Amino acid sequence: MPRSRVVTATLSLLAATAILVSGCGTEADTSKDSALLVPELNELLPQKVRDAGVFTVATDPQYPPCDFTNDSGKIDGFNHDILMAMAPRLGVEIRQEAIAFDGLLPGVQSGRFDAAMECITDNVERQKTVKFVDYAYATKSVITTSENKRGITENPLTACGLKAGVQTGTEFVQDAELFSKNCESEGKAPLQITNFPTAGDQNTALQSGRIDFAFTNTATGVWQAKASNGQFKIIPSPLLSRTYVGIVVGLQSDDTAKALLGALEAIIKDGTYDKIMAEWDLKDIALDKPGINLATERPLDVPKVCGSCGS
Length: 311
Prior knowledge:
The protein is an alpha/beta fold. It has 2 domains: 3-138 and 243-296, D-Maltodextrin-Binding Protein, domain 2; 140-235, 3-Layer(aba) Sandwich (D-Maltodextrin-Binding Protein, domain 2). Helix content is 34%, strand content 25%. The strands form 3 sheets. A 7-stranded mixed sheet has the order 1-6-2-7-14-8-15. Strands 11-10-12-9-13 form a 5-stranded mixed sheet, with helices on both faces. Residues 1-28 have low confidence and may be disordered.
């Protein structure tokens, strides 16, 4: 990755600045390449989007390499690159808007945004309120400081009784609860869980020692460890599942979902998607067959209480 991306990503991870959640946006008018336009996909988009020529996607740019703010103040990341590749197939400009993570789904539900994209986990519970157009896999890990003073390992029982951080509105809240249940099943103390409004707040707490560890997207954690010159340690866990991540649209937005799926299929077919994932060193989470609500349609294994599994 270019050095400028790493430097800015570190800043966004370690300090949650106000500008990141103030609603600033970035846009790239890539819709003018008529040779790439797929008319039937454009026709599936809402009339208001076609009239304006703009499709608005909300994100929380604090999760490199998913989404972050680069040195130019623009939203960057592999999600951004995927969207910009999809735009000419749809025949509209895709414009990203930055807000806090816990506002992403409500923003789509209310109609404020046409969609949201920020490595958002597709799960059955969320499918009750929104629809997912899945474009990649994601894995999750535990993140702690490089010293790992508490001796956390892949064995989830080594986390029992420790102070854990999770970001509000993320699936990590449920992951922490599963860890606690696993501890209690073995007669051990549950996690002491603290919720943080932003990833920056969580990482500051981790560095200062207010929490012992946190939960993170593996790709984000690896990026963070590299960008901080090894200040963090990433630890896999059998209690953390492999999941799908998707572009979120409204629950009744069937045609929009089909349009986005068609655009994804188009960039996969012509090799653009693979090039993007290779550029970001993310070939291991590439999804060659995207789909809608795959957590239901093609469910993955869900971790369960397992005691000292991973030891």
